[in-house]
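Q: Please design a sequence for this.
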């Protein structure tokens, strides 16, 4: 533990009591918001996939927070497109007034572009406001509870409702003995012992499963390598008809060749059989 005292570690899964603790070792909720998040989590009252407005690939989607209320969709798109091609963009607005809620979601064309924005767009300035960016924890972080239900991460509120374990406020290395038995009894996941990082290291977002990622990269690579006229030619009905005609012609030629070879071998066998069937005078006949 000595070498990791000045290090930090990040949460892979979300637990309301842990995120309310600076070192992830608390066993009891310390304010009403944490208790509300714990009740919502235990009762399964929050469905991360229940929002019909949430669309797109979560592995390609970036959360953008602390936006100025003057920032519009066009301004956010202009600021984010320097990191890659944008597929979808959503600025969350108040359901009644239509005013910006100060955060939004940007979906890029590829996961690589999202990771580039995750690395470079953090703490940049948009409309005189310093923004933060994070991966789509709503879909990719197990047990996630949003801020409106008492959960969330980070925040500038200097009170008991601070949240830890995220990019802005990672867990600090515990300075006291970790109550392993108490955490186990309450069903609280223990802090990830031995997975500490330096505060200067950039945590990486969750990665897609290797099989699907490799398939996506292969398809993208083949599309880039194939000439455009070849893609058009291979997908055109005329080309498919000509390919089918060539295939049938090849089958006919192959069939006729096989038939000719069969007939020639059959004739040869009959000739040999006929030659053996001819009567030859034997010694007794003479």
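A: Design:
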């Amino acid at each position: 533990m000595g070498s990791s005292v000045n290090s930090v570690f990040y949460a892979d899964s979300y637990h309301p009591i842990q995120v309310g603790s600076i070192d992830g070792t608390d066993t009891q909720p310390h304010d009403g918001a944490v208790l509300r998040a714990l009740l919502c989590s235990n009762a399964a009252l929050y469905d991360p996939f229940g929002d019909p407005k949430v669309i797109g690939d979560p592995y390609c989607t970036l959360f953008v927070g602390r936006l100025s209320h003057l920032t519009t969709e066009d301004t956010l798109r202009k600021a984010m497109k320097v990191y890659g091609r944008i597929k979808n963009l959503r600025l969350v607005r108040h359901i009644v007034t239509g005013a910006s809620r100060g955060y939004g979601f940007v979906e890029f064309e590829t996961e690589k572009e999202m990771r580039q924005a995750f690395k470079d767009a953090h703490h940049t300035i948009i409309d005189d406001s310093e923004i933060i960016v994070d991966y789509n924890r709503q879909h990719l972080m197990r047990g996630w509870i949003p801020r409106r239900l008492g959960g969330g991460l980070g925040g500038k509120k200097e009170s008991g409702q601070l949240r830890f374990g995220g990019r802005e406020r990672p867990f600090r290395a515990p300075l006291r003995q970790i109550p392993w038995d108490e955490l186990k009894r309450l069903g609280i996941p223990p802090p990830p012992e031995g997975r500490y990082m330096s505060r200067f290291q950039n945590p990486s977002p969750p990665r897609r499963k290797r099989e699907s990622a490799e398939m996506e990269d292969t398809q993208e690579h083949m599309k880039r390598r194939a000439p455009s006229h070849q893609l058009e030619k291979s997908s055109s009905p005329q080309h498919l008809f000509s390919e089918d005609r060539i295939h049938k012609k090849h089958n006919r030629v192959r069939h006729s060749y096989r038939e000719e070879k069969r007939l020639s071998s059959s004739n040869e066998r009959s000739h040999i059989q006929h030659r053996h069937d001819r009567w030859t005078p034997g010694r007794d006949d003479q």
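Q: Thanks. Anything notable?
A: Residues 49 and 133 are 21 Å apart (CA to CA). Strands lie at 8-9, 61-65, 86-93, 100-108, 125-126, 129-130, 132-135, 171-172.
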